[in-house]
Design a protein that fits this description.
- The complex is a heterodimer of chains A (about 190) and B (about 600).
- Chain A contains eight helices and six strands.
- With about 190 residues, chain A is α/β, with parallel strands linked by helices.
- In chain A, α1 packs across α7.
- Chain B is an alpha/beta fold and about 600 residues long.
- Chain B is built from 20 helices and 22 strands.
- A six-stranded parallel sheet of chain B has the order 3-2-4-5-7-6, with helices on both faces.
- In chain B, β10, α10 and β11 form a beta-alpha-beta unit.
- The chains are: A alpha/beta (about 190), B alpha/beta (about 600).
- Chains A and B meet through α1, β2, α2, β5 and α3 of A and β8, α10, α13 and β20 of B.
Amino acid sequence: MNKPSKNVIVAGVGGQGTVLAGRLIAEAAMQEGLSVKGAETIGMAQRGGSVTSFIRFGGECATPFIKKGEADLILGFEPGECVRLLPYLGDGGAAVVLDRAVMPVSALTGASRYEPSEMISYLKNRVDRLVLIDAESAARALGTSKCLNVALLGAAARSGALGLTVERLASAVKAVIPPRLTEINLKALNTVTL
Amino acid sequence: MRREYLMGNEAMALGALAAGVGVVCGYPGTPSSEVISTVCRRAPEGVYAEWSVNEKAALETAAGAAYCGARTLVTMKQVGLNVASDPLMSLAYIGVKGAMVVLVADDPGPISSQTEQDTRTFGMYSKLPVFDPSGVAEAYEMIQDAFDLSEKYGTPVIFRPTTRIDHGYEAVTVKEPEEYKKITPAGFVRDPANLVIFPALSRRNHALIEKRNEGLKTEFSAYGKNEITEYGRGAKVGIATHGGSLGYVRENIADGDSLRLFKVATPFPFPEKLALEFLDGLDEVLCVEELDPVIERALTFTAGKYALPVKIRGKLTGDVAPSGENSPDSVAAVMDSFLKRKTTTGGRDVPAPPALPVRPPVLCAGCPHRASFYAVKLAMKGRKALFAGDIGCYTLGNAAPLDMCDTCLCMGAGLGIAQGVKRVDPDTCCFAFVGDSTFFASGISGVINAFYNQADMTLVILDNSTTAMTGHQPHPGTGVTATGQRVTPVSAEKVLKAIGLETVVTLDPLDLKTAVGEVRRVSEKPGVKAIIFKSPCVAIEKTDRRCTVDENKCVGCRKCINELGCPALGMKDGKAHIDAAQCTGCALCAKVCPVGAIGGDEDE
């Protein structure tokens, strides 16, 4: 079967804005006149759990779900969550990752172990096209951590791995995000330069 | 017509509106909840929608509306159907005048449910036709077919998406409101001979139902969404599948594969004639299903009935996992083996990663449930106690370090369990925790049972003024309806007092000291008594309050972290640290801190 679709995975933790990021990618692809399918985990998993969105666009696909080894891009909102989804990344695939870890309660209380620096060095060794985003300086430039999801999206577009332009994403931001938040999100799209 | 990128639940809601639905009722439950919120947002004038108190009330309300000739939609998750099954089983015999589509969302995995029950099987049990959509765009069309079939045969019809359809997204071409079907209900016409269920009526109607279902087997064989597709030439093997798994199968059909694909959109009554066409000339068939082996059993039966020389494989033969959710990768493995082809899955061969973060869902930072549980935990320290939990965000109170949920069974069950434990283990101090929405949905009868039968227990209502877990729907205690109308709220306190409880205490869980003392005092009283912990859900009532750690005072003892498990609390350079982005200023940690190092719970 013919499968030329662009396969994107958004991986993060509940509350990080992964769902909106997926929605913006879909909107941008729709505006390009491309076919789009998507899927996301919501519900129980939202309460601080791992959250994954799949978006496939621009090709023929029978399901929004992506097989292992067939993702073109992982947008990692969190280093550990990016590593968790790494088996889905295909040869030559890209990962655009925020370097700031979200510590789970189990690690805070000492019931489990989580060492973010190990994740980052693992990503450096295993991902062909890795773009690591400095979350602190992006948040400082924006004056908030709340739009880091859109900043990450802008970085992914600029890296070329997303297959959508920053201009197209800006148009999606205007279509999807309420007017009072449009400006800060448009700024976020252009916060991270590569 | 216009194209919209829609979530499956949105597509089904818009499909129902296009079909002229007039009355929509349901109770929230993941993954079904967005259907009603979409109806509320998008319905043209004249469509009535409500969050019912529970699924039984929803179905009965819709039944009355359908008796009048309206097209009705009832929504719930699969375990909600257990609650609605009493009216639905009988309504299957009585039938409807307008139409009734019962949308029941199944949850293979399960991802956010208690069970992996299969509503297709419930369709067979209740003898009601079942539609099983395979994608978002198809669900939009198919739910309109379901309304037409319901009206044509005067029967409730089950529409059964699964989580991946409910929460999947596709660009869908939808109708404009002007294109929606217009239904003008005739109103209620007295007809007790057909609307009052007596054994004589049931005898007569049962025979008619069986006859109708025989006819539906043929009708469904001609239904366009039940499909046979040939891949390659001269196929000797076939794959039968349904729902979300159809996409996984199609995704895994490789160039050069020779097979026949059977997509079953109406698992009951089973399209037998079409199944015979599918089986004709095949040696082997693989059934790729989630939940019960419904298609596999039907095909095995068909092959036996017509003495066909074909082997049917699937869950019953051990070829497909008997439980759990399918994925493109799991289906690839099953198909590789069935088609005897080289492996097409597995991804890249990469070395094992370092230990991944463990992230079970947790109570949010500042969640008032944390404070409520902690107060009861402190009050019962050293006592033998039972903490019966229930269904909602507060089930997450089971996680360490709170560890305050000993049992959880189904909506409202904690009340009964607390009573039963006390009967057999009388020296245990028994608590039942129930959320406000769950209390109204199915807790009240448990309280009456306890009071009438002289039980000894403490009911704790965790009142955060919303149905939080499923996405913050209103309920009878909130004084707001599904469509935003302001109404008189039902008071849990007054309900409890009307039942006869003498001790009903309302507390602020964030006032820890008072809460602990009151829990101790109330729990020592005989009989049935209640505590209502009232504090709004932090996801709705946003605050500007934040707590901060005075690094000069903090001794790094980690008590705040280890006692509360709040996601905003961590350590930085040997001192406690509060993540300002998550903190809501609930200040529970400030009350736990032994050296008074945490403060700043004032508005900034």
